[in-house]
Amino acid sequence: MKFGEFEIGTFVEQEFRLDGGTMFGIIPRSMWERLITPDENNLIPMRANIFVLKAHGKNIMFDAGLGDTLSKREQRVYAAGGVTAMEPGLLSQGLRLEDIDYVVLSHLHTDHAGGAVKQEDGRFVPRFPKARYIISREEWEAATHPDERTAAVYCPDRYYALKDAGRVDLIDADTELFPGVRAVHTGGHTEAHFALKMESGGKKVLYPADIFCTSAHLRVPFVPAADLFPLRSMEVKRKMLPEIIHDEVIVAFDHDTSIPLGTVKEDGKQLTVTAV
Question: Contact at 8 Å (CB) between 262 and 249?
Answer without folding.
Answer: no
